[in-house]
Amino acid sequence: MATTPAPPQAPPKPTWDPRRPEQPFPWLRPTIRIRLTLLYGGMFLIAGILLLSIIYLLAAQALNVGSDLPFKITEGKVTSQVCDLPGQASPDVFNRAMSECVNEQRQHALDSLLSRSLLALLGLAIIAFAFGYAMAGRVLSPLGRITRTARAVAGSDLSRRIELDGPDDELKELADTFDDMLERLQRAFTAQQRFVGNASHELRTPLAINRTLLEVHLSDPNAPVELQQLGKTLLATNERSEQLVEGLLLLARSDNQIVERKPVDLAEVAEQAIDQVHAEAAAKGVVIRGEQKPAVVQGNGVLLERIALNLVQNAVRYNVPEDGWVEVNTEVQHGQAVLVVANTGPVVPAYEVDNLFEPFRRLRTERTGSDKGVGLGLSIVRSVARAHGGHISAQPREGGGLVLRVTLPV
Q1: Where does this polypeptide localize (predicted)?
Q2: For the chain, domain boundaries
């Protein structure tokens, strides 16, 4: 029976990341500073054009361009070095020639006034835009401090504060509110870390005591068969509880940004994970293959090893009963370190892929067996990858299985 292919999913919308580097040309972005600069400069330019138009109209009205002369020549001789006046003519011809000459001079004066005013307006507009840009930067400088503090907080530095000085205006109120929020967040994260530390001790100790008592009773050769079977069942349940506690604690710790980073080669991490899972893969008849090329990243080696181990373990455990394989590859692509784990296995619908990264979420009921983990593997992988500034993606394979791709910055 042919299966209907799943409809293609729309690509996820990009989310804002405060740790993302600045764009190569930040002054080209339509920032608030640019908009305020254009607003200040545009208002000045419009006001200058209106003022220039009013001055031009008033000057034209005062000069009476096109009107007749307020005087007339009745007799005598008139000479001019500017106008071309007739040498010998009647008074009417002289008056008409002088009127044309005066109107021409008036128009020339208005044209000169207009051109020089436009040049002056252009110069003043440049000064106005520069002044508006500087003033907008000064007015918006508190927002820059808030943004830089937000970026630092996104890097898990909750001790940073804005501590904005200046007048008690809206920007200072915003900065103080942001500082209060950071203070509450820091207290909450500190309480969470304290809880994680206490839970680590309080939950591990009784489980370790239970495991010791069970192992002691199971080592008694005179114990009844029913008691030994019950002890083995309880021991397996206790081991599962220990795995659950370890997974929850690791998930809580890996949600924070990695502060201390060291060079870690993903190829070595993947090889160690393969060595640890090799015996389990051989027992299940799963072949592990692939090529591990050097891919050095800056991060925590223990957490990165957990990424590779969880992915390889899941690929081996959730595989086909016969002729299964797992492919593990590491390399550097486009300036980023990449770890790819692909495997054969059951068919995974495309709409179920995102649910696999949620804690305690599994694909089907057959994935809830106690021998296959506690349902935190991919959640831990995603959390650790985010803590290192990377991400993980999953795609269903044609024919069954998944292709998991972890990308980390070099």
Answers
A1: Cell membrane; Membrane
A2: 26-154, 180-254, 262-409
